[in-house]
Amino acid sequence: MTLDVGPEDELPDWAAAKEFYQKYDPKDVIGRGVSSVVRRCVHRATGHEFAVKIMEVTAERLSPEQLEEVREATRRETHILRQVAGHPHIITLIDSYESSSFMFLVFDLMRKGELFDYLTEKVALSEKETRSIMRSLLEAVSFLHANNIVHRDLKPENILLDDNMQIRLSDFGFSCHLEPGEKLRELCGTPGYLAPEILKCSMDETHPGYGKEVDLWACGVILFTLLAGSPPFWHRRQILMLRMIMEGQYQFSSPEWDDRSSTVKDLISRLLQVDPEARLTAEQALQHPFFERCEGSQPWNLTPRQRFRHRPPGPFPIMGPEEEGDSAAITEDEAVLVLG
Ligand code: ADP
Ligand code: MG
Predict the structure, then answer these.
(1) Which of 50, 52, 288, 327 is most buried when burial is the number of CB atoms within 10 A of its CB?
(2) Which is higher by pLDDT, 17 or 194?
């Protein structure tokens, strides 16, 4: 995605960002966030292309308190990005610079842009493609949670695609560390993806707070949206949308859900659990029957009996076959018959 360059997108002045400019040559705008502009840039020494997220932290636009808040938030983002770098489904921070008026974060360039734009173009995805994307996303979330990091802004705009259409999770602007048992209270994220407990907590001082389960709710919203082409919770009056979220009120309506498997609907319903304690964890979600098939080539070389044994134990009922493109797969019902 290439965006038009407006007057507010003037490149940061040379003096303020000398170090960055000496090393990189910034090019066109490829993305835009609430407080940042993202540009393609070229590493002068090698000619390799990267993406740079430029955040303005000047007094002209912000009060001193806001200024310090942005700086602090960006330092936190940078710290977490360094900690998670190297995971195959998380964006890699290559370099970072902080001048008096700008902060620069240099990343791998994700040439195919946002999952959001890809979905808009395709309207809805197949279960097969959704499975591959969601497996990668849940692996990234599982890794973050194992490292006591909660993302808090999972959505298709923050999931980027590389040349091979592999996903990487990005935008750690709202992410933070969370020790086991520790709770958060801050209302942050994107309305349609907010978990019920975040909303309830913001309305009730006696609420115990929320934890990393909020990321799994957002995964449920993403999974639903990829398959339906529209989000599970939507009302043009935002207050009514928020009420739908708090009540966990969504539908698998016709015709878009008619041909979807009961397996994937079951996974969605286990992620969109209003009670965070009842919601699947990332690890549990990865064990769900929805992810059982197409696990590389390995399981397909096994006999039905071996394949059945291969399945890790999970807290899920046996599901029937309804998936498209997986006709070679033995279903668990069949496996039960095979095993008597
Ligand atoms: P914000 O925190 O302001 O939302 P993001 O980090 O989400 O900023 O970046 C804004 C947008 O810029 C993204 O949604 C995406 O379109 C684009 N973008 C960010 N990082 C990259 C990247 N590494 N490669 C390609 N595009 C990117
Ligand atoms: Mg973003």
Answers:
(1) 52
(2) 194
